[in-house]
Structure formats: structure tokens, C-alpha cells
Design goal:
GO molecular function: peptidase activity
Number of domains: 2
Organism: Deinococcus antarcticus
InterPro entries: Chloro_Bact_Ser_Proteases, PDZ, PDZ_sf, Peptidase_S1_PA, Peptidase_S1_PA_chymotrypsin, Peptidase_S1C
CATH class of the largest domain: Mainly Beta
Radius of gyration: 25 Å
Largest sheet: 6 strands, antiparallel, barrel
Keywords: Hydrolase, Protease
Pfam families: PDZ_2, Trypsin_2
Shape: globular
Order of helices and strands: EHEEEHEEEEEEEEHEHEEEHEHEEEEHEE
Structural class: alpha+beta
CATH architecture of the largest domain: Beta Barrel
Helix content: 10-25%
Distance between the termini: 33 Å
Number of helices: 7
């Protein structure tokens, strides 16, 4: 069964400015008191409800906005000019690329959680210079990267020389308990307008979208929180809070039809946040990363079906083969063909078997004779990204159940994610 995915344009926010700010004109209807015998009471109740909501928002902003951080980055980018010799100049020039984003304190040590794409440099590492500024202070201080997790689009940074009195952590909530319709408050720096606040609701608690930066720059499908709170370029890495003032998500992307023509995303009322529970599971690893990158859990599987592309072999699912090829090689309709397993990693420990016969065919390469993973925790899979989507929020000690096909027979294999899965 060939998996079908609905492609939507997700414009990564926070990497640049230059868009035009728009204000929607929203008509306000009149209260029709005369048409209802108790209209006065209804209007008063409605007004009281608004004031109560306003009071709640104002209290949260006043209490937790000091924990918000405005992030600026600078990256030295070298460009080549093949015609520079004609003007007596150098054929290479160094330009400074600047970016802005948001973040927030997560502990008293001053650790700041943000998006990976906010602090990433051109080559995938950290930007050359990162500075942060807290509310009420005009002076910025430098910050260093503690850990980066590109596949999750998360990073942890720490300021240098910041007064400890200015470190105001925002409490982390429980994103698993969210319900559609709950209030949301987004804080950040849209279009560089630092320390801005917008309000909305949770539109969906389980939207599946590509988040992060995996192999080839592609995101890994993950569960995200959808909100209609206004999120724009510069909001990236900022917190999404609930009505109790707890962080429930980290703002990361928007759906922006206008970005297709302008190249700069603008809010269309559909924003996405990384669930805070994913970040909480990841925090210990980020804090221990010592400036390095960390990756999602790995089972230790080498794909056994590769399609030939200009960049080399690209892993694909079994459904990419023609029906005739699947019949000839006695393969199921969908699944991840296991070409080999890495000794000492969870897949090998669980008894998964790699292939024994390597074949070349027009358009690619296949390794036959091994297991085919057709489902994970009861959900059908047809590519490494499907498997990774299940593993992405797992932590050490968790287990997953693989449905494995081999030579026409299926079996269930329980795989435990021990320390080797997180190396």
C-alpha cells in the first residue's frame, strides 16, 4: 500500500525580516439588546467574560514575559564572484547574514530553549555569533550553544555574564493533557518586534507535520500543536502558554499561502508548536551534549532498498517497487526492507535479520532475504521517516513493537530503546 501524504507549504519562521505587516479589519457586531427581554444581562455577562479573559492574559504576561528572550544571530557567509577580476577585486566576499528569533528560560542556570533553525549556521552548525536580550534591558549579552537537536528543531543555549536576577524560568506544562479549544498565548518577536504577545486557542492537538531537519534537510513527521494565535517570522523558538501560564509548546512553523509567492511567511491563522513534553524528554540530553548535536533514537537498521538519485542512493519503502517486482522478489505491498542491522544496537539485540542477497536493478539496489518491518505499534510503515515518526518522542527505556514480515510469515518483535539507541 503506497502511502499518500498531503503536501502543504510550511514556511520556517524566524530566519529573516522584510515582510509587510498587515492588519485584518474585523467587523464588530452590535449587541441587540432590544430584541431580547434579558438582553442587558446578556451584554453584561459577555462584557464580564471578556474582562475575565483579559485579566487572565494580563496576569500571565506580567508574570512570565520576563522569562522571554529576544535572540539575534550573525553568520559570516562567503560568496564567490567570478567576474570580480574584471574590476580588480577579490573573487570571494564575506557578508554577514543576520537573523532574529525567540526563546525562553527553562531553569535557574539560565538555559534557554529555542528552535534549532534560530541559532543554526550555514553549514548546519551554530551561527558564528549569538546574542540574547531580556525584557527591560537594552544591552545584549553573548550566548553559547549547549546542545542542538536538528531533527526536533530544538536547541539549548546559555548566556554568558547575565545577571542571575534577570533569569526568570517559565514553568513547563503537560502537552499530553491538551484539548482542542483551550486558550493559548504566544510570546516572541514577530518580524523583530521583540516582546510581543498574541492570543488564540488550540486548534488541534495531534496535527502530523514535518518538523526539524533530517537527512537531506527533510523534516521528520511529528505530532504538533496547531494554534490560531498569531505566529510570524521571528516568533520561532518562543513559548506557547496555556491559561495557567505553563509552556505547552515551542512555536516552530506556520502555514502561509502568501509565502509561496513572496518567500516570506505571514500568519494565516494556522501555526504549529512542538509539544513541550517532547522538549522535556529531550532536555537532559541537550544539557549533557556539550555543544554537540544529538539525534533521534536509532534502532540500528540499514535500509535494504535504495533508489538511485543524483545525490546517491536514497532509502525508499517497498511500495516504491512495481507490483511485478514485489511479486518476483516475494515482498509485501509496503514496509521497510532491512538490508543489515548494526551489531550492539537495539534492532540486533531484538533479533532482527538483515538481507543476504544484493541485487542491482534499473533505478536502484535491493538487498533480499532479510526482514521487512511492515508496522510499528500497530501502525503501518513504508519508509524510515514513518519509523522515525514513532521513535521521535521516545526516551531511554521505552519499547516499541515491530510487526515483521519474512518469507510470507509475520511475527511481532519487541525492541527496547536502551542507551545504545541514543548515542
Amino acid at each position: 500500500m503506497k502511502s499518500r501524504r498531503l503536501a502543504i507549504l510550511l514556511v520556517v519562521v524566524g530566519l529573516g525580516l522584510g515582510a509587510t505587516l498587515l492588519r485584518d479589519q474585523v467587523p464588530v457586531g452590535d449587541a441587540r439588546v432590544a430584541h431580547h427581554p434579558t438582553g442587558v444581562e446578556l451584554v453584561q455577562a459577555e462584557a464580564g467574560g471578556k474582562l475575565e479573559n483579559e485579566r487572565n492574559t494580563m496576569q500571565i504576561v506580567q508574570k512570565y514575559e520576563p522569562g522571554l528572550v529576544f535572540i539575534s544571530t550573525e553568520q559570516d557567509v562567503t560568496t564567490q564572484d567570478p567576474f570580480a577580476w574584471m574590476y580588480g577585486g577579490s573573487d570571494s566576499q564575506t557578508q554577514v547574514q543576520r537573523g532574529v528569533g525567540s526563546g525562553f528560560f527553562v531553569n535557574r542556570a539560565g538555559d534557554i530553549l529555542t528552535n534549532y533553525h534560530v541559532v543554526a549556521g550555514e553549514a548546519g552548525g551554530a551561527a558564528n555569533r549569538i546574542t540574547i536580550r531580556v525584557m527591560g534591558r537594552s544591552q545584549s549579552v553573548t550566548a553559547k550553544v549547549i546542545g542542538m537537536a536538528p531533527q526536533y528543531d530544538l536547541a539549548l543555549i546559555r548566556p554568558t555574564g547575565l545577571d542571575a536576577k534577570l533569569i526568570r524560568p517559565i514553568p513547563l506544562g503537560n502537552s499530553d493533557a491538551l484539548k482542542a479549544g483551550q486558550k493559548t498565548i504566544a510570546m516572541g518577536a514577530p518580524f523583530g518586534l521583540d516582546f510581543s504577545v498574541s492570543e488564540g486557542i488550540v486548534s488541534s492537538v495531534a496535527r502530523q507535520i514535518p518538523i526539524g531537519f533530517g537527512a537531506g534537510g527533510q523534516g521528520i513527521t511529528q505530532k504538533a500543536i496547531q494554534t490560531d494565535a498569531a505566529i510570524n517570522p521571528g516568533n520561532s523558538g518562543g513559548p506557547l502558554l496555556d491559561s495557567a501560564g505553563n509552556v505547552i509548546g515551542i512555536n516552530t512553523q506556520i502555514y502561509s499561502p502568501s509565502g509561496q509567492s513572496t518567500g516570506v511567511g505571514q500568519s494565516a491563522g494556522v501555526g504549529f508548536a512542538i509539544p513541550v513534553n517532547v522538549a522535556k524528554n529531550l532536555l537532559p540530553r541537550l544539557q549533557a551534549a556539550q555543544g554537540r548535536m544529538i539525534s533521534a533514537p536509532q534502532l540500528g537498521i540499514v535500509p535494504g532498498l535504495l533508489a538511485q538519485t543524483q545525490r546517491g542512493g536514497m532509502p525508499v519503502g517497498v511500495s516504491a517497487l512495481s507490483a511485478a517486482a514485489r511479486q518476483q522478489w516475494q515482498l509485501p505491498e509496503n514496509g521497510i526492507l532491512v538490508g543489515a542491522v548494526t551489531p550492539g544496537l537495539p534492532a540486533a539485540k531484538a533479533g532482527l535479520r538483515g538481507g543476504t542477497q544484493e541485487r542491482q536493478f534499473r533505478g536502484g539496489q535491493v538487498t533480499l532475504g532479510g526482514d521487512v518491518i511492515v508496522a510499528v505499534n500497530g501502525k503501518a510503515v513504508d519508509g524510515l521517516e514513518d519509523l522515525q515518526a514513532v521513535l521521535i518522542d521516545r526516551k531511554q527505556g521505552d519499547s516499541v513493537t515491530l510487526k515483521v514480515w519474512n518469507a510470507g510469515k509475520t511475527r511481532d518483535v519487541k525492541v527496547t530503546l536502551d542507551a545504545t539507541a541514543f548515542r
